[in-house]
Amino acid sequence: MSEKNPKLTTADGAPIGRQQALTAGPRGPVLMQDVQLLEQMQHFNRERIPERVVHAKGSAAYGKLTITNDITQYTKADLFSKVGKETECFLRFSTVAGERGAADAERDVRGFAIKFYTDQGNWDLVGNNTPVFFIRDPYKFANFIHTQKRDPKTNLRDMDMQWDFWSQCPESLHQVTILFSDRGIPASYRHMNGYGSHTYSFINKNDERVWCKFHFKTKQGIKNLMDDEAAKMIGEDRETHQRDLFNAIERGEFPEWRFCVQIMTEKQADKFQWNPFDLTKVWPHADFPLIEVGTLQLNRNPENYHAEVEQAAFNPSALVPGIGASPDKMLQARLMSYADTHLYRVGVNYRQVPVNRPRCPVMNYERDGALADAQNYGGKPNYWPNTREGTPMPDEQFMDPAWNLGQVIVDRYDSTVDHDDFTQAGNLYRMFDDAHRDRLATRIAGVLGQARKEVQMLQICHFSRADEDYGRRVAEKLGIDVHAMQH
Asked: What is the pLDDT of residues 28-45, one digit of tens each?
């Protein structure tokens, strides 16, 4: 053995002399006392963790956020404290509906999840490459994801399931229009935008609150694939986006995004045309212009995919002083659901995995569980309040100001009532030129045509309410007489 090679050992650190099975004679059976072999097989049987229910297929890289503009009038968050400040981050891209073996170039929404390792704890911004989503009521989320997966009987992706759900949920029309537009298949992860999508809150040093949305505008330029280009790429390489991102960073071509925010005051929110906390709506840039904050750069690939990408855990509940939640119903549900799924998928101490571990000290009274290393607390008390010396204590300077929600009644409100689900989708459609509108209608008809006729008719009504030409084009592609429908 070369002096340069480290000694091979068991998981307990004992040196291994030879890597062959221990048998009774050259042709004999393997002995139970071959603990090296048993250890290897036992670990092999357990080396996969459950894949994510959503966003299962992903790629990621490390980088940094550099602040270029002062926004301390809006937020006291430490990472925005001064121009020039740099914060390490980890960004994971993904497809939403596909399983881990899905092709990268499929038509699907893309995940855009960032973990910022700030001096006051981790801030996770768990977004997509679209500024809106299909639903606004969290009660529909699990049901929606079921429609994007596999039919329980055939175990096949089923267009009738998808369009049946969308036809019953007109609030999905804005996102559906984006998904089947020319931006539905990004050419690479480097050539698409990212959005926090939800409405969040900023709190400044005077405890004044504003509402905000987060945007990441690619500096590489937007590039997308047409259907035939995507099909060709998938036939040749199912890992196109992963390969592109990894190789670009290895070449030193570090991708960058311009980080911007939109700001809305509480008074403006009260008068806004739409519910400002509705995940199916955007804030028009003409009314709420983008404010540039900084530059996000990716500059380092992970060393081990499983340890750093597969075990990466992003939580909308990972907020820091100066950045808070909002009444957005979908965000409120995600504050619980994301952290909960990591407890199941990775384990109760998933935050101790290096990629998830905050870069600042962590001091609390959460104890034990599988793989607890106890490095944060050692032999300190596991209860609060206490009078022991040197134990962590809360500090009221980090209190968020109270929410004044007025005279409200907590109830299960119907999220389909008193909502305009068509204007913004229609506005987006009218922004497209004639050829783009035709491609949109062709794509939709290609998959909607696999649904039942009654589902097609319901969905055409939604398209028509957004724009009469939108509904007419899709109907014609499906061979449906719109005039006969009206009578």
From this structure: 888 888 888 888 888 888
How large is the angle between the packed helices 453-466 and 159-168, nearest 10 degrees?
A: 50
270 & 227 share domain = yes
Q: What is the pLDDT of residue 448?
A: 97
245 and 292 housed in the same domain = yes
d(CA 43, CA 294): 44
Instruction: Report the CATH number at residue 296.
Output: 2.40.180.10
Set 5, 43, 45, 55: catalytic member: 55
- Last residue of a domain, which of 334, 357, 380? 357
Q: Please tell me the predicted confidence (pLDDT) of residue 3.
A: 66
What residue type is 388 in one-letter code?
A: R
How far apart are the C-alpha atoms of 22 and 19, rounded to whole Å?
A: 9
- Cα–Cα distance, 116 to 66 (Å, whole number): 11
Residue 220 has which token pair?
A: 């590489």
Task: Identify whether 436 is a catalytic site residue.
Answer: no
Give the number of domains in the chain: 2
Judge if 177 and 279 occupy the same domain: no
Residue 404 lies in a domain: no
Across 35-49, 88-102, 132-146, 203-217, least confident range: 35-49
Give the model confidence (pLDDT) of 187-205 as tens digits: 999 999 999 999 999 999 9
Residue 248 domain-assigned? yes
Catalytic residue among 128, 193, 301, 315: 128
Beta strands in 394-436 (DSSP E): none
State how far the alpha carbon of 47 is from the alpha carbons of 105, 175, 344, 370, 388, in Å: 28, 37, 15, 16, 41
If asked whether residues 268 and 310 sit together in one domain, one would say yes
- The DSSP secondary structure of 162-173, one letter per residue, reads HHHHHHH-GGGH
Residue 382 within any structural domain of the chain = no
Note whether residue 454 is domain-resident. yes
Angstrom distances, CA of residue 393 to CA of 367, 379, 401, 424: 16, 16, 20, 48
Q: What separation in angstroms does the CA of 111 have from each of 54, 130, 134, 195, 319?
A: 10, 9, 14, 9, 19
pTM of the complete model: 0.91
Q: Give yes or no: 128 in active site.
A: yes
**180 has a pLDDT exceeding 60:** yes
Same domain, 257 and 317: yes
- Put residue 418 in one of left, alpha, beta given phi > 0 → left and psi -120 to 50 → alpha: left
CA 41 to chain centre: 34
Please give the structure tokens belonging to residue 131.
């500024």
Domain span at residue 163 reads: 147-185+422-487
Tell me: do 316 and 456 sit in the same domain: no
- From 327, 357, 387, the end of a domain falls on 357
122 and 151 inside one domain: no
